[in-house]
Amino acid sequence: MPAVPALLAGQADFMKLIAIVVAAASAAFLALSQGQANALPLFVPVSGFVLAAILWLARDISIFLRIFMGMYALGYLLIAAANTLASYGLVPQTLAALVPPAFMATASVCFAGLVFGVSFIPVVRTITNLADPYFYSIRSGEENFSWFGRLFRSEGRAAVAMVAAIIATNFVQVGLNIKFNLWYRDLFDALQNKNADAFWYQIWWVFIPLLVFWIIFQLLDFTIDTIFRIRWRQWLTESYFSRWLDRSTHYKMGVAGQNADNPDQRISVDVAAFISSTMTLSTQMMAQLATLVSFTVLLWGLSEGFTFPGTAVVIPGLLVWVAVAYSLVGTILTHLIGRPLIRLDFLQEKFEANFRFSLARLREYGEQVALLRGADAEKANLRGGFAQVITNVIDILKRRLKIEGFRFSWQQMSVAFPYLFMGPYFFLDRITLGQLQQGAQAFGQVNASLSFFISAYTTLAAYKATIDRLVTFEDAMGRAEVIGTVPPHIERKTAPENALVIRDLRVDLPHGVRIVEIDRLDLRAGEPVLVNGPSGSGKSTLFRALAGIWPYGSGEVDVPEGRSVMLLPQRPYIPQGNLRAAISYPAVAGAYDDAAIRAVLIAVGLPALVNRLDDDDNWGQRLSGGEQQRLAIARALLAKPDWLLLDEASSALDEKSERVLYEAIAAALPDTTIVSIGHRSTLAAFHDRRIDLQPMDDGVARPVDLAREPVPVG
Questions:
Q1: Could you tell me which of 613, 606, 610, 607 has the C-alpha nearest to residue 580?
Q2: Which of 295, 312, 488, 533 has the smallest CB count inside 10 Å?
């Protein structure tokens, strides 16, 4: 996609522009704060220059992370600008209480630097490699985002805007949390001083506006986040199943033995889990970082002159160090207790998917199980699969009980810490009741932020398992995609000749054993051919090579330009849904009119189905083997291929029914060349030429043309 490199270059240039804007704004803040009462602290414009340098260096990192950095830059500009205006008295008194503290601007710089730093961590790069392609999507956003998509021209740009909006709402909520903390201080001070006017002011003119803003931004965050997750899941799911199906990747994965277990679950369940966890953890982590820096500054100021208990030693910011030490110990212990969860969660996804697959497969082969009276064997298999699920669930439960028991105990113990350290200072009248409450709440916020790893450990363990499953699935698809693309390989070309020509063909098994060799073989248009040979001689594999899906071997298959080849296997695939879609497959439903569908159903001997085109059913189970093969022939009559390869496609029919089908094909497709694999002698009557694949002394099968002189084999 040529537009993607242009997007990459554009994103890098945009980051450079933001860096220049931040540097210029920082210079302006520095100049405006000179000699001004209540001036902006010097560290704010200085940190702005640091932010500009970080943004310049970050122009080539993950786009997902750049969104966060861009929003932190915007947060810095808005907070620094608001405080500068407030220092000049340009902010109305009613709004001044809502202006975030100036140190929040520098906190934004710290967050941007942290994001830039984590961008080099391998696991973070793995996550962003999975996430970034969506934000580079050039698909029109109008279809999925309506008027919002039209503003940004592509879904990727709309997605960037939505993540930016989510970050902005979270950032505002952190700022509101800080204002609530300051409100607690002022409210309790008013209560301690029995100042009724100050009390009611805090209720009506501070708390109520803060509450209204809090509700608005909570609802806004929920709405945008939900819409974004839906859109991202739809795009990523379509991307995965398209890649899985394109170029027969799903088939190659199975043939090559690279089939990641339960790809259906990886596409449906793991994609949803990855998106949910990525957004939840990234936004929560961002909010916790903002909370940590902001409340650390408050807590440091409150405990700046505190002494270590039982001594006269002054420890600046004592409560901050207590919170850090307490959380660090808790984090280490949580990791030691919960580390096995990563492996257990990975295994749980696998065991659950295997059990569901066993049930689905039993439904598919229900008739065969019933005929063989296989219920006892199936129950034993299901018990074994379900036992793995339950055993692993119990192991997870045991591990989580340990984690949760430790976490609950550790968190409850932290409640008393700020009062233990601040209580004596309150009784000595060195702090007010409001400051005591403010300090307790700030300690709780800092401890909660530092304990994020403890609280989210089980989520992080499941997230790591999900990432591993998606990465292994992508790796398996990547390995399968290159099979048959690197020489030597079987190359399918178009040619002007009026024949399907095989040249220097060597067909191998996945482990390298050769099974078929053909130096030259022409399947001329209009000449029906019957291919015989003993079982295991490679007939079906040869047909798959002719159809262009067998990746192992070398040589060339020339197909006349503009001509089509269709292969019908012995066991046809019939998708679920209505009968019209099942007959139209592989064309989409609606590709053929109902009159044509009814005509081919009658031609292949399925007149009972002509009035059931709208019936939804599991037709793969509803129809017998012979009826399924008749339906497959009906598809061919609709598709009208130039070459029709029948790999024992009528083996489930009796000879009379088979003759009727071949006559129907001849009548409906007079210009189609039939090439059949079959063992019945009666098939010879419908073919002008017979080719036997005969295994030679070296075990490799070579064609012997029984209608003419033997084909040279070299």
A1: 613
A2: 312
